[in-house]
Amino acid sequence: MAPGAEAFCGEVRAAxxxxxxxxxxxxxxxxxxxxxxxxxxxxxxxxTYKIVLGLxxxxxxxxxxxxxxLTECKVGVEGLALAAGVISRRGxxxxxxxxxxxLRRSLTGQVRYVELVHPLLSGDPDSxxxxxxxxxAREWQRPAVx
Length: 146
Fold this sequence. Notes:
globular, alpha+beta, 4 helices, 6 strands
């Protein structure tokens, strides 16, 4: 089992401390843990990052999320970094979070990917969505508002 949600939120704050300020991100917003997940969120003007801890699986992953007028898109930052060409192969960072040490190492590597891809995601919306789609993003239609 992974570290508890309280430890997770503190480690996320520590990993994002300087990065959030440099990139203009607000957070962390914290979702109370359910039986399986704990989530922290950093929100910028164009992109939101969701840091998800699988409490049973013992893994952590950062997702980039972007909304358009019609759709929502979500993809892991490792896939984005690969699609953007800022890394050469998968597996250069860890996703393990069964111990605090693993969690810290995983967050440090994935936050570095956030720093690398953020300029590409926060700029031109069409280019950002094209990159996200190239990285295998999940995309769905937003509900119509009457």
